[in-house]
Design a protein that fits this description.
By secondary structure, the chain is mainly alpha-helical. The chain has helices at residues 5-30, 33-37, 47-66, 79-99, 102-109, 112-123, 133-153, 159-181, 187-209, 215-240, 245-251, 254-267, 273-300. Helix 3 packs antiparallel against helix 9 (187-209), helix 5 (102-109) packs parallel to helix 8 and helix 6 crosses helix 8 (159-181).
Length: 311
């Protein structure tokens, strides 16, 4: 017998809500990066080399944590651009943190929603969802505000670092887009493979540095890799089974908004006023899209007149 239309719609809404919550949970876990990176236990590592060491060890531990859970590994051609984007994302993000300020690196990478939008609409001719343009517009306004004041506050910044930050945003957009295209594959396989490739690409540089963590530092780095990389990417892939890549990266902007909050609450590091302003713009767009419009849609449900903004 056929499933009633209302039941199918309810199941679809529930699945979409689950996908959004998975991406929110992933963003919350990603936002813990500053807690690990600023932990006093790593104060003996040189500042200029700390970013590379963090990037290597967290990806290596993420791959190790997920390896026992891998099921049905198989090669798909789209794994190649995904692995390239994932490795480039790590390398360019790391380079941006070294060559420019950490804040600029974070916010330049946060331009990823715009790149995903371009990939989806321009290259792959996917339809434009009007209501998804709301968090995209507010998000880009918030990111642009923060970047503009960051660059004005430090006019002598390395342009190569800015270029690396832009490249990291493009690469991150590619990661989310291709993961969305591969969302039927085993999630542990996708995440473990990409982290392993990224770790292998950075390993020669780490060997050259010759700086190795102590046993206590290894424990923290293992938690860094598992909680800040491995599990969030599993949640992201689960979310991409229910929502589009554009929506996922827009929701993911929660991460850079919360990161300064956690570092302030735990380590007492205060964010600049323009970071707070930009974060408020990002949150405004997300709340308008996922609270106001969803409540309005529920109010219209059952009415003959549909809401003005389509799905």
């Amino acid at each position: 017998c056929k499933v009633p239309r209302e039941m199918r719609m309810d199941a679809h809404r529930h699945d979409r809500l689950t996908g959004r919550l998975c991406v929110v949970a992933a963003a919350l876990m990603w936002s813990s990066c500053g807690l690990f990176a600023r932990a006093p236990i790593f104060d003996d590592w040189p500042v200029t080399q700390r970013g590379l060491l963090f990037a290597f060890w967290r990806t290596a531990f993420a791959a190790l944590v997920l390896l026992p859970t891998v099921r049905r590994p198989r090669f798909r051609p789209m794994l190649v651009p995904l692995a390239i984007c994932f490795t480039l994302m790590n390398v360019t993000y790391l380079s941006a943190m070294i060559l420019t300020t950490p804040a600029n690196a974070i916010w330049l990478q946060s331009a990823a929603p715009w790149w995903v939008f371009l990939f989806s609409v321009v290259l792959f001719r996917e339809p434009v969802v009007r209501r998804d343009l709301i968090p995209l517009g507010f998000g880009m306004a918030g990111v642009g505000t923060i970047l503009a004041f960051e660059i004005l506050a430090r006019p002598d910044q390395n342009l190569a670092g800015i270029a690396c930050g832009v490249a990291s945003g493009i690469a991150y957009g590619g990661v989310v887009f291709f993961m969305g295209r591969l969302n039927t594959e085993n999630a542990s396989w996708l995440v473990a493979l990409n982290h392993a490739i990224a770790a292998a690409a950075m390993f020669p540089l780490v060997v050259t540095l010759g700086l190795w963590p102590s046993p206590s530092q290894l424990l923290v780095l293992a938690a860094f890799g598992a909680l800040q990389m491995a599990v969030p990417y599993l949640l992201l892939i689960r979310g991409l089974r229910s929502i589009r890549a554009q929506e996922a990266v827009s929701i993911g902007l929660i991460e850079p908004v919360l990161m300064p909050l956690w570092t302030y609450l735990i380590w007492g590091v205060t964010a600049a006023w323009w970071t707070i302003l930009g974060g408020a713009l990002i949150l405004t767009g997300l709340l308008y899209r996922y609270v106001f419009l969803d409540l309005r849609e529920r109010a219209w449900r059952g009415s003959a007149q549909p809401p003005k903004l389509g799905h």
